[in-house]
Specification:
This protein is mainly alpha-helical. It contains 14 helices and 4 strands.
């Protein structure tokens, strides 16, 4: 049966609006804050927004891979803290910069790998496994630092978080490179297809000959690795590794992925949407700060935006 042309047009418009909801939301925020605050479109403010967003955006790339497989990673904030504390401690002890940085990245990747190992070997749900790691890694950070920040890490290390390549801050360049690699893997590589297949239907993926255990190990290792990179950036920028660093970071990373349209059920989404989601969170935080909105109300606003995104995702999937 043929639908009337007007009805078909209405359906197509509705579908387009649902598909482009994240981008529409981002543009809407930019327009609103541009009107409400003359400082919003200032070059230095926009650069600051992008620099601040880079921390969450990098972690959110790893979270995207995890959620695409139908998992979740609650440990990224604690992994960020522990890996950056290890790097800072080694720098204070006189280790070369490259060795200290590599140690932090290895620690982050190793903790992520352990998450994946526990999930596949002991059949523990990702929520529980990564919640346990969140607690363990935070405890390790407090023990290692004795609850005190590690400061005075040197000018060379500070370049990671505060340096520029031309007019562009290093964290922004790192973010663009990481998103480009993530996009390539998911769209143009067999590994990306396996990630989608694992999240779409893990049993069918196994029957198709995909080693889903290796895919799960990969995505959680990647998540830990990227959390460690975010840890290096924030520690470098502040010239200090705080034992409380990264608290709540996992929620912002998950929010960026959800706002970007990646399904929490797995198998659908991508890093372009995640980048838009991270920008929405960054711009929302910045705009509300410029308007002198209380941090308490900012939490309410952020939660409402996330709830709306999930509601729209559910409507889209019907």
């Amino acid at each position: 049966m043929n639908l009337p042309e007007e009805k078909v047009t209405n359906i197509n418009i509705s579908e387009f609006l649902l598909k482009a909801k994240s981008l529409i939301g981002l543009v809407g925020l930019i327009v609103v804050f541009s009107i409400l605050s003359p400082r919003f479109l200032d070059y230095y403010n926009l650069t600051n927004v992008l620099r601040q967003t880079s921390l969450n955006a990098i972690m959110a790339v790893g979270m995207t891979f995890v959620i695409l497989t139908g998992g979740i990673d609650l440990s990224v904030g604690s992994i960020l803290a522990f890996s950056s504390a290890i790097t800072a401690g080694m720098l204070k002890d006189g280790f070369p910069l490259i060795i200290a940085v590599l140690a932090g990245l290895i620690i982050g990747t190793g903790l992520g790998f352990f998450n994946g190992f526990v999930i596949i070997r002991w059949n523990i749900p990702p929520f529980i496994a990564t919640f346990a790691m969140m607690t363990i890694a935070r405890g390790l950070t407090l023990v290692y630092t004795n609850g005190q920040p590690i400061t005075g890490l040197g000018a060379a290390f500070g370049y990671i978080g505060n340096g520029y390549i031309g007019p562009i801050p290093v964290p922004i360049i790192l973010t663009v490179l990481i998103f480009a690699v993530g996009y390539y893997i998911l769209k143009n590589n067999r590994l990306g297809r396996y990630v989608y297949a694992t999240g779409g239907n893990i049993q069918a993926a196994k029957l198709a000959g995909i080693n889903t255990n290796n895919i799960i190990l990969f995505v959680y290792s990647l998540s830990g690795f990227l959390a460690a990179i975010s840890g290096l950036i924030i520690t470098s920028r502040l010239n200090s590794a705080a034992p409380t660093a990264g608290q709540g970071a996992e929620l912002d990373a998950i929010a960026a992925v959800v706002l970007g349209g990646t399904s929490l059920s797995g198998g659908e989404g991508g890093v372009i949407g995640t980048l838009i989601g991270a920008l929405i969170i960054g711009i929302l935080n910045n705009g509300l700060n410029l308007l002198n909105v209380s941090p308490f109300y900012q939490l309410i606003a952020k939660g409402a935006v996330i709830l709306l995104a999930i509601a729209l995702d559910k409507k889209e999937s019907k």
